[in-house]
Structures are given as structure tokens and as C-alpha cells.
Amino acid sequence: MTLSLGLGALVNNQPQQPTQTNATNVLQDSANKITMVSSSKATKISGKYKTTAALNMRKGASTSSTKITTLKKGTVVTATYKKKVSGTTWYKVKHGGKTGWVSGSYLKKYKSTTSTAKATKISGKYKTKSVLNMRKSASLKSGKITTLKKGAVVTASYKKTVSGTTWYKVKHSSKTGWVSSSYLKKYKKTTTVSSSNLALRNKVISVGSQYLGVPYVWGGMSPSGFDCSGFTAYAYKKAGYGTLPHNSRSQRAVTKKVSSPEVGDLIFFTATPGGSTITHVGLYAGNNKVLHAAGDKVQYQSVAKGSYWEPRIVSYGSLD
């Protein structure tokens, strides 16, 4: 066996000269007593670990080695090497700018509680429900970019879920960052209707209501009898909107599609719930009601959720 000189150690409180083989350190005291200390070669590793108790970080893999610092219980460290010395596994770790060896008996594998999903591309505008911090990443611990005021309108580009919380990547003014969706709501742009347009819209319903009870007549387009598109075309013309074609699908083609109706807009329906083929048209009268020639006469009916007509709505159209 070939022995090589190593660093000094203590045996019976006396400095010794250890020699090293591939598998052992040999400590020899002044009385020529020899102690064999088993030590494996350090193996390169990577990963994070958490201390399970207060733990001394030392210069070498030994309880006799000089202490560098004491790590608190729960400290997360980054490991770079591990080795076995006399049956104990030691880890070379880094924490807070310091590097040293700690006993593996007081470490456990660190599992981040942060569950991060892949960001999904989205689009849309949202409005803040309260004062809200925009951050560099999807975490409350991330650096703050700016604070958004309540009511700020932002444009979203991505979303992701982190530890059960959904975050949106948004842009506001010239700044881009992450905000918690808990304080956002979908932004709906409100359209201001001029007083003249509002009066004209109300006039459509006023004209149409004059013919309540007029019988439904296929192909009818006069006060003696109306079909659905004949009634809407007649009401629009009398109110001063101009001429509409006498066909529900053609009326859809000449109107501007809107996401939610205003008083006087046209509502287009299909024959069966969830269908897409337009077979009927009426006038939106406000308060979730439609004024139309349906059944056996001109009448008001509900388009509120749960009504007969609501699931048959295909779209809305406006002449504005």
C-alpha cells in the first residue's frame, strides 16, 4: 500500500499526520497507534436541500473541522459535492455566499412548493378591481415594476397558474409584467349612444308597439298582417331608419354585428337551440325583451336566460 501525506488531524488531543489511500485516511499518533478513517472520493452532484435542524457548515467533511457558520433549521442550500466519511454522508453546499461541508443526516431534499404551469398565450383587455402591483414574474416575491391604480385597463398576452393562483402577463402604458388575476375583471367597453340615436332607437320600439296584436301573416308587411322580417322592416322604415330587405338573413347581412344589443337593434334567431341558421328576426326592446311577429301575432316576449328564445339567439345587428 502506498501512503501519501495529508492534512493534520487530532488523536488524543495531539496533532497527527494522516496519510491517505483511495479508500482510507490513516491517523498515527505519537504512540504509533493507528486509526483507520474510511473516506470516499467526493462525487459531483447538484440540487437543493433543506436543513432539518440547526446545522454547522464546516471547512472539511468532519465534525472536527473548523466551523464556517451555523445554518438555521429550514435553510435551503445548494449542493455541489458529496462524500462518505466513516459511514456519514457529507455534502458540500453553498448558502449566502459561503461554501462548506454539512452532514447529510440533517438534510432533506428540497421540493419547491411553487407549482408553475407553462404560460398560455391569450388576448383581451382587463380592468383592475383594486390597486395592483405589476411584477417581473408570476410571484409575490418577484420585484415590483409598478403599481396600477384601481380601474386601470390592461392588455393581457399570457396566463399561467402558480401554486393555485392564476397570473396574467399584461401591458399598461409602456410597462409589461405579471399581475394576479384575482384582482382583474374582463373589460367591457361601454358605448355612448348620442341623444339623437337614442331617440331614433326608442322610436323604432314606439312605432312597433303600435301594432301589438296584429296577426302573423306569412309574407305580410303591412298593418293588416306581418311576418317577422316584414314587421322589422316596416318599423324601421316608419321610424326613419330607411328600408330593410324583407328577409331575416338579408337583414343580418346589411346590419353591423354587435356583441350585445341596444334598444332598437335586431335580434336574429334560429329554429333550434344552439343552431346557426337564421330563421327569425325581432326588435330588441330592452330589459331582455323582444318585440316581434311570432306565433300568431305581434307581441313582446322574453329573451332572458331560461326563456324559450334565449338559447335560439344567433346574433345581434345594428344599423348604427
Automatic annotation (TrEMBL):
Pfam family membership, one: NLPC_P60
Keyword Cell membrane: no
Record-annotated NlpC/P60 domain positions: 198-320
Keywords: Hydrolase, Protease, Thiol protease
PROSITE patterns tied to this protein: NLPC_P60, SH3B
GO MF term set: cysteine-type peptidase activity
Classification via SUPFAM superfamilies: Cysteine proteinases, SH3-domain
Domain SH3b: 45-111, 118-188
Xref: InterPro entries: NLP_P60_dom (IPR000064), Papain-like_cys_pep_sf (IPR038765), Peptidase_C40 (IPR051202), SH3-like_bac-type (IPR003646), SH3-like_dom_sf (IPR036028)
Swiss-Prot/TrEMBL GO biological process terms: proteolysis
Family of this protein: Belongs to the peptidase C40 family.
Protein name as catalogued: Uncharacterized protein
